[in-house]
Amino acid sequence: MPRHALVMNTTMAVISRGMATEKQIFNQIQSTKNIQKITSSMKMVSAAKLKGDESRRATSLTFNTWANALNGSPKMVEDATFEELPQKCLIVPITSDKGLCGGVNSFITRGAKSCISKLHAQGKTCDIAIIGDKGRGQLRRVHGDLIKMSVTEIQTPGNFTLAAAIASELVAAGAGNYDAVVIMYNAYQHAATYYQMYKTITPFSGEGEDEPLLAYEFEPDTKSEVLADLHEYLLTSQIYHSLMDGAAAEQSSRMQAMENASKNAGELIDSLTLKYNRARQARITTELIEIISGASALEG
Questions:
Q1: pLDDT tens-digit readout, 171-213
Q2: CB crowding 145-160: b at 16 or more within 10 Å, else e
């Protein structure tokens, strides 16, 4: 084979390898740009939804004010000992059916796991009724034997009718047979902050001095029937508030997560662009060297 033909074949091979590398980097840049467009759009959608969730949360706060007088204020899950909980509890973690929202679901399931372990260490028993597919998936792996029911594919945005349906399912599953129902949820503060809280709902039972609502008279139904209905209504009201609070926290977390994803995509695009330019420059330099070498060889 003539020497100039060998030089040309070597040059074409180098160019081919260089073009393949550049093409791969270029495809990565385009794919990352597409992902950045998606995450930016999801951020804007979450920002728009957050306004509606904030409005519904404000309404639920006003509606649920009366419940705190009966059950007390919610408590922080972080660093909680759960020593005040009675012997037999039903834990109700409220999570979402969708992901891509930061750690809202992981924080709740982590709090539920902590509660379960501390209750067992205190010699108490508990079961789980999960709301949301993400929570079910995370808790099923470690506490599948404790799960008594799960509610998934929840319609959004939530409303009081949905909360009433969930409360009815809990009552049908035997929520009244527990000493307390413990609802764990994300409490929205503002667009960048949310906390994990829990509420303890105890049934209206007791005799003598422990009899509930002694200052009230009940007509025409018997007191036990009214208290049973009131317990379900209280459970509904607390679930409704927890759903609204959790929905606002979910959207704020998703908005923040998508903003971080868009920022990371932009940094990756800059890095790949620099890599692409270096590969292109290296290919052009190699081509020039090969051309000059081939010309020198032909002259010699």
A1: 988 888 899 999 999 999 988 889 999 999 988 876 666 677 7
A2: ebeebbbeebeeebeb
